[in-house]
Specification:
Elements: H1 2-22, H2 31-43, H3 47-54, H4 56-66, H5 68-87, H6 97-117, H7 124-135, H8 141-159, H9 162-184, E1 189-195, H10 199-209, E2 215-217, E3 230-236, H11 240-250, E4 255-261
Antiparallel strand pairs: 1-3, 1-4, 2-3
Helix pairs in contact: 1-5, 1-6, 2-3, 2-8, 3-5, 4-5, 4-7, 6-9, 7-8, 8-9, 10-11
């Protein structure tokens, strides 16, 4: 049920971006919807309806490669997204192409991110991106979308205009970044690695004073070939100063690496999504 709530909300947010910012400023945001906007510019056909019709072949492919549940959810998302583009009674908020590009990109990225968190896509290039990401995990959905959508924008430059195409590139880049943030989450947690001869004292204080778990990893120095226990601890951004205080008091010469942890799942952090 929560998945469908995310899908409906994402379709509403993403669909609203078109009448509010993108369509009145002739910003074609790539993908199937970008093709639909090009056709709208040339023929005045409804953007949402054209996008829905063009997605039919992709759903036939998606049904065979992604399964029935994912395809059904994506069909629901695509229909809602297309309908919201055409029927939402919204007036343009700005005639400035730059503002339309920026705010449209944020709304579309947030909408698509919510839809993907709900286990669906809106068809088009993001369905292709989802299938590619499923096979090649190292390629993020946002990055792949940016690459294939650029090709659509270049084609749009010849039919709508080069200025609008340049704005569209900005829009696509911003959409991809916002979508990745919504899917992965803001980096609110830090993964900390500590190498110190006083690892026992440090780990005890972290567990006692910060109420955080600590994992001891077995590591060896390449130069000395001696065992150098390494501590791993995941903490929130607000706990960084307390963590550094413990290290400073126990061993100010400790070697520390603090990296971004996009998402922490488990005791003391978020739960596993269903």
């Amino acid at each position: 049920m929560f998945s469908y709530v995310q899908i409906v909300l994402g379709a509403l947010i993403g669909g609203a971006a078109y009448p509010l910012f993108l369509t009145p400023n002739r910003i074609a945001p790539g993908g199937i919807t970008g093709v639909a906007m090009i056709l709208n510019h040339l023929t005045q056909w409804p953007v949402g309806m054209v996008s829905l019709v063009l997605n039919i072949p992709l759903f036939l492919i998606g049904y065979r490669t992604m399964g029935r549940i994912f395809t059904f959810r994506s069909l629901v998302a695509t229909i809602l997204f297309s309908v919201f583009i055409d029927v939402l009674p919204l007036k343009p908020l700005t005639g400035d192409p730059l503002l339309g590009t920026l705010y449209g990109g944020v709304l579309v990225g947030a909408g698509l991110g919510l839809i993907m968190r709900g286990g669906a896509t809106t068809g088009g290039s993001d369905m292709i991106a989802r299938m590619v990401h499923r096979r090649f995990q190292f390629i993020s959905v946002g990055s792949f979308l940016f690459a294939i959508d650029c090709a659509v924008v270049i084609a749009a430059a010849f039919l709508i205009g080069t200025t609008e195409a340049l704005y569209a590139l900005i829009n696509i880049f911003l959409t991809a970044k916002v979508m990745d943030v919504v899917i992965i989450g803001f980096s609110a947690n830090k993964a900390c690695f500590v190498i110190s001869p006083r690892w026992q004292e440090i780990s005890q204080r972290i567990m006692r004073e910060m109420d955080r778990g600590v994992t001891r990893l077995t590591a060896y120095g390449a130069y000395t070939d001696e065992e150098r226990p390494t501590l791993l601890c995941v903490i929130s951004r607000s706990e960084i100063m307390a963590f550094k205080r413990i290290l400073r008091e126990e061993d100010e010469n400790a070697f520390v690496i603090i990296v971004e942890a996009h998402e922490a799942i488990g005791d003391g952090f978020s739960g596993m999504e269903k």
